[in-house]
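Hey everyone, long-time lurker, first post.

I ran two proteins through the pipeline my lab uses and got sequence/structure pairs for each. Pasting them in order. The first:
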Amino acid sequence: MSEQQANGEEEKRKFALQRIYLKDASFESPGSPNSFRVDWKPNVNLELNSKNENLEGGDLWDVVLGLTITAKNEDDEVVYLIEVQQAGIFHISGFDTESVAHTLGSFCPSVLFPYAREVVDSLVVKGSFPPLMLAPVNFDAIYEQSQVAQARRENNIQ
């Protein structure tokens, strides 16, 4: 392939963030105010999920990163429960199907995560609990694991 052809193909590829928005957020503290009266040694659990939808069959994609954070005290009682759906609209064109899937499953959630992390921290602090700064997440590794798991399921079904 000539250099001119390679440059032409690169120019056709487009990835652009159109909008980032908070789709849904909830904070529950079922044990308050009693949960403020015990020593703060929580067990925090984070669940992540991601879904995407093609908008109008074109090059626009709506990607939603879902986070569920459950903090429990030593007695295994829920201190707080947070659910956040951070979303973004992305323009993706000129990529092959596999590259689009990887972008939607890994890169887009990586873009959305810092925004979701800020929402979580803000909700925790507004609930009068110590700040919670979630550690960075390797969405490439999560995507790879999901691809391996999907391949295993497909092989077991057939």
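...and the second, right after it:
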Amino acid sequence: MAQIDAFFKLMNTQGASDLHMVAGQQPVLRVHGDMERVKYAVMENNELKAMLYEIVPEERVKHFEETGDVDFAYEIPGLARYRGNLFNQRNGIGAVFREIPSDILTIKQLGLPSVISRLSTLPKGLVLVTGPTGSGKSTTLAAIIDEVNKNRKDHILTIEDPIEFVHRSQNCVVNQREVGVHTRTFAAALRGALREDPDVILVGEMRDLETIALAMEAAMTGHLVFATLHTLNASKTVDRVIEIFPASQQAQVRSTLADALKAVVSQTLFKRVDIKGRVAALEILICTPAVRNLIRDAKTYQIPSTMQTGKKYGMQTLDDAIMEILQKGMISPDDAYTNSIDKSKFLPFLRKAPTDFTDV
């Protein structure tokens, strides 16, 4: 057993999502969104480095020493998997670990809207799951892929950095590839994917123009592609995809994206006030013919109003999702106000003036 495993077991017992280990400080857990120090001695750089190097694959150590940061995965059988990031900082080495549960929760267990389950039945196209870091994108995608795995007879190919949730072949054949271990880049893996007979492709993150272009190409050539982006809402997601391309290509990209895009799910995670835990508010855009026309005509600013009138298709705005969980007493009015788009809707719920003076 590695020395660091004791911290992972503590993390699991405390229900923490993240473990921070930094030279010159005590270990810190993030429990339900709050940082809590572990009662342990301040870690010296050499002591921590030895502890971390015990679990980091040799080729990843070499990469870290050459570049100063690296991602990797670590698993404790019977407990959980961990996505780790090593980095150098002022006092020496540092690391952050995110716990990835061994069991994949279903869409129903996560309390997600029923339309999310329907995304797993799409024959082809591009589905984007977006949100800030730590908003539960990977958990939602894992639930959708698990639904595909149980109910279809297809080939699922995932490209991740690192592999997070492990999917074992059920009705589908599942192959999981890790960037830096099984392939050099997301783009290289996507180019190869088109020759590997996949039906469903999961792209862990669309980081650059080439990866986005290849993902759209795969969606246009008969594959169902799921991918993530770090954007805050549906209309901003569409804009982000288009704006990463040179201006001379954007008209063509709008047309391609309008044809390829099937749905955008934007998540924001909230700390619950009724019980321990967290809850997600989802903005959902379904690409109906009306939405496709808005994308083609560069009128993405009209997407929020289209979502308001498209509730029968399963669409919902982020503000409506936040209002629903606020009225159920799950989250605080302050959190609802801070994360909303139209803040005026949430002002009546506040007991005192907003804390962010830039919103006034």
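Reply from user beta_strand_b:
Welcome! Quick read of the second one: The domain at 114-348 is CATH 3.40.50.300 (Rossmann fold). The longest helix spans residues 137-151.
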